[in-house]
Specification:
Helices cover about 40% and strands about 15% of the residues. By secondary structure, it is α/β, with parallel strands linked by helices. The strands form five sheets. Strands 16-17-15-14-18-21-22 form a seven-stranded mixed beta sheet. It has a five-stranded mixed barrel with strand order 1-3-4-5-6. A five-stranded parallel beta sheet has the order 8-9-10-7-11, sandwiched between helices.
Amino acid sequence: MVTERSPKKDVFPLLPLRGLLVYPLTVLPFDVGREKSIKALERAMVNDNLILLTSQVDVQVDDPVESDLYRVGTVSRIQQMMKLPNGTIRVLVEGIERARIEQFLRTTDWFEVQVRRFPDEEAPEMTSELQAMMRSVLQQFEQYVKLSKKVEQETYAVVSDIEHPGRLADAIASRLPLKVKEKQELLETFDIPQRLEKLLRILSDEREVLELERKIHQRVRKQMERTQKEYYLREQMKAIQKELGEREGRAAEVEELREQMAKKALPQAVAERIEKELERLERIPPSSAEGTVARTYIDWLLALPWLEQAETRIDLQKAERILNEDHYGLEKVKERILEFLAVQKLVERQTGPIICLAGPPGVGKTSLARSIAKSLGRPFVRVSLGGVRDEAEIRGHRRTYIGALPGRIIQGMKQAGKRNPVFLLDEIDKMASDFRGDPAAAMLEVLDPELNNSFSDHYIEIPYDLSHVMFITTANNVFEIPAPLRDRMEVIQLSGYTEIEKLEIAKRHLVPKQRENHALTGNHLRIPDEVLLELIRGYTRESGVRQLDRLIASVCRKVARKVAAGERRRIAVSREMLQEFLGPAPYRHGLVEETDQVGVVTGLAWTEAGGDTLTIEVSVVPGKGKVVLTGHLGDVMKESAQAALSYIRSRAKQLGIPADFADHVDIHIHVPEGAIPKDGPSAGIAMATAIASALTNRPVARTVAMTGEITLRGRVLPIGGLKEKALAAHRAGVETVIIPEGNAKDLRDVPEAVRDRLRFVPVKHMDEVLAESLLPAAEGGDGIIADWAMLSRLDAPGEYGGEGAHQ
């Protein structure tokens, strides 16, 4: 019945179809947008408008190859082509005959194939069996049309006039809503009786499904009252889903959630709560907003890692190697972290206090926590607490509120996906409190190992076990953390880096990172050590390396521009280039002052950003004994100044100053950078030294810096932050640092490189400070007012008092 015995061999361009199939003698429009397909159409227009249309096996493949295409397709004629505004082409084709691909001749720009054509016979022999099959197919199709709403009634009249059995089968198949695979099976059936038989079986199956749908429809109508339209439609859908094995709507949603629940390991209490919520969700109408709230809550319960745990194998050698690779220096910090991990390995459980990495910005607190997670093989989660002032941010909102969500702790656990991540609570000292509650109080439960095994989130409402989490916190100023919260943490101080450490960090980490970011290889850019050192000394004043990183990035951008413009291929940055790229150095490296000056002392201060130098200036002028304090000083610092002045008055005879000097001069104490608030007692000996220098006209050694609290009797009391202050003195080029004797024990915390560069002088009394820091008197006399006897005439008119003082 087919011409397979004498097929014609031809060459045609091939156009792959996705989700479509064209039968012989059927007309079909479709859009073409793929480049290969458009080229195949253009080739076909040159080749008598003939093209082979074949379907793809997988419609998701965007660029098919030979194996992605069915081997049997339809030789078709292009009737019309129209280019659409979006660049695609709309094509109208008419199928002619079946064809099988014998060989792919071209697969690059477009597909071109050699085919064997299989046209149906024009007048096949009409046997009794063939006529019976045609009649059965038409009867089945007539019943299908009557039952189906997808096929118009006029379609049967059109099809019933076809007398050719093969064309009849193709015409009916093209109008049935079948899958491409089923249509392809009919297309690949060259034998007409077999084709009719397959079509008859398909029609019979489809008609049975339609009959079943009709029965379901009738059964549902009998069960429901006509006035309950909404309920009727829902029940109809349920009945259809039950018979066809399909799921949609709320029932499908609940079933899907139950499948997720079955696949997930859950504690019994959580499983019971989820099951209770699922039963409640089933009873909520789809149109109710309460359904969305319930579904979101169930999703959160299923998304949390209740029992899932990352495999943790603490390898101290591996952890030490990772810490050394990621961070240069910080030896004591890394040693404490390794001790902490060693305890974890022995006890096999999170115990002991929570680690708090405290230090100025840019010293590597966050990256240290990330390295700990990397060495343990655990997920890493970071939550920033800066500016958090609502307790609900920690504990979550109650579900009665619109838009309620769990707190940041539970959100972080969902993000981790495991119940034992390394959880970084960043900037814990920046939390605040207001009328919405105190988040620091909520953090007590999170960070207390005795309590966090049953952490209560207002949204989840089920105790959640946080005892397996390794919490690490960071802070700039631990004194800003509430005492009860600070008591639950072990503070590890990260003071800052020395110049040598910064140089090594820049060479090992910062420069390679910025080279990679700016696509600069070692051949394009070279920054010598002396240039990096100049960058550190002249362009940065920081404890960390963030500003240094930004400056190196700026240099890399300048170099990248020159390389991209073709001006130079290789650039070795020199000091002159540094000034060209970044401008003049804003800081002067070396001594705080260029010369030894009277009444000017270098003090040392602790700030949240690390240690810093503090210049204290004192000026003595004729007056009535008034003391002026300027420079935005705090109350404690003002009191230190008063104590320093009282000490100097008590030692006036030993210093060679008249005992009644305070009645004839005004003393002005000033600390520059007046826009910055300053407070604390550690500048006491520096102010006393500056006052003594100004009154005795003896300059202070510019190579000396000092820190310490003074008493009225001249004793020097210990202070805090010695390590940070020592680093600041080292950065400023100071040679000698005077410290209280009570702080001598703290020198072991100062980096060895700094101890080697600085001379530390522990002192007990202020007399030792003056002996160490004051130089011989400057030219012009023994005091700031050369002739102290002249002070007795300060009140005489025409001399230093009255109107004559202004003449």
